[in-house]
Amino acid sequence: MRHRSLLVLSIALTGALTVTACGSRGGSKSGGDTSGNGLTVTIGVDAPLSGQNSATGLGIQYGVQIAVDDANKNKTVPGVTFKVKALDDQAQPTIGQQNATALVGDSSVLGVVGPLNSGVAQSMQQVFATANLVEISPSNTNPALTQGPNWAKNDKKRQFPTYFRTATTDALQGAFAAQYASGPAGKKKAFVVDDKQTYGAGLAGIFQDSFTKDGGQVVGTDHVNTGDKDFSALVTKIKSSGADLLYYGGQYDESELITKQLKAAGDNIPLMGGDGMYSQTYITTAGTGAEGDLVTSVGVPVNSLDSAKDFIAKYKAAGYPGDYDTYGGYSYDAATAIIKAVGQTVSQNSGKLPADARNQVVKGVQGADFNGIAGHVSFDQYGDTTNKQLTVYQVKSGQWAAVKTGTYSG
After folding, report:
1. Whole-model pTM above 0.90?
2. Which of 85, 144, 257, 307 has the smallest set of CB atoms within 10 Å of its CB?
3. Domain 4-168+304-377 class?
4. Secretion signal: which residues (predicted)?
5. CA 24, CA 35: separation in Å to the nearest integer?
6. With 0-12 CB in 10 A as exposed, 13-18 as middle and 19+ as buried, what is 221?
7. Where does residue 39 fall: left (phi above 0), alpha (psi -120 to 50 degrees), or beta otherwise?
């Protein structure tokens, strides 16, 4: 695919890091490499680095890389050098589970940032929990990951004490999107489509329920498969439904083609989706067909934050691939939460890592309380971020432009 050459390089680098950073600590079950001067601690990354969703996945990888580079340069944790070990899950749950097992098996890994996809997260959570290895996703938004399958019935139960996220949930994002669609956007009839995946189907369902409650009418629903390219039958259904809005639950890989084919067929209604669509790649592929389309994404626009200017400058200067503006800032902050927890653990243990370092890092992350580059970082009793900010973006003149930022008021 389009990032294949980068993937080869990433594999080579990952192998090199494994050689230098996976030493044991004289019988301790977890901890950093002490074979050189000081300690070496690895932060794992799991995301799609090739194929489906790779633009946003690469943004996660390099958001973490910049956080690690900053920590090493600033000597954030005296005596500790941080490294990144990035694994490609190709947006596949089975590969994600294999990656989780590999990261757990590397004793130098004291925290993991990722994954991108909620469906992949489901396959990884138990693996990390069993090993007391902290996992912070900058992008998972399905509410059940933290609050359990009965969250919608207000029966919320934390699933895994090692799982956290810096992105707010679809319970807020889907409702926020519906509120905007039926309010400022003035849409009355929506056709709702999803990709059958955990994230996409969940988000579409929440939007559909909220849009109806807000007075809108859902005039049709359908599903697509990830990897589909020809949406002519779907386009026909949408055109005949009389919808003035198409809502899509899923990633940009399919939606960018759906909107392009829908506009080419003469139906100029906007396509609206969630943060899985918020990527410049969507606009590049859809071309003029993307004009007027809408997405919701977590947080405040990173380009508008003074706290993120240095991060953005470093990302651009390094020439890193991928889209930093989707989850790059949240990835940086997730890595920073792990780095701070490692620092706290070392400080409380006379400058060394204890045998239960992974467990101590989990506790440190749970107590996180700092201002990150993308907003305040702290977690509630479920592991969810306390930052509930959301933004609606619209394609204007070939660029995503923020049109509304706030929190859901329901």
Report:
1. no
2. 307
3. alpha beta
4. 1-21
5. 9
6. middle
7. beta
